[in-house]
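Design job #97: recover the sequence.
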């Protein structure tokens, strides 16, 4: 049976967050990876060099994950993602239309 290995940034996020498998949101324009913990309502932001920050949305002006993602888009941009909301069907339709 094959096992999957998490990358160093994901391992760092797992150490910061309560949720055992945080949701990969995307990679911002500065190369930092964002992970979402729905238990804590928290985002872990892990830079390529391993520096990490845990951001609780309740301590920001943002009430939703979508607002966090829009803030990140305006401040840093997204190289990959964000992967928030939608459905597998919606993702497949967008891929076919691309």
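Job complete. Output follows.
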């Amino acid at each position: 049976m094959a096992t999957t290995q998490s990358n160093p940034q994901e391992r760092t996020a797992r150490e910061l967050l309560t949720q055992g498998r945080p949701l990969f949101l995307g990679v911002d324009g500065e190369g930092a990876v964002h992970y979402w913990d729905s238990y804590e309502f928290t985002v872990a932001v892990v830079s390529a060099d391993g520096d990490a920050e845990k951001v609780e949305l309740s301590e920001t002006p943002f009430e939703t994950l979508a607002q966090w993602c829009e803030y990140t888009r305006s401040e840093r941009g997204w190289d990959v993602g964000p992967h928030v909301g939608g459905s597998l069907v919606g993702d497949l339709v967008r891929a076919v239309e691309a």
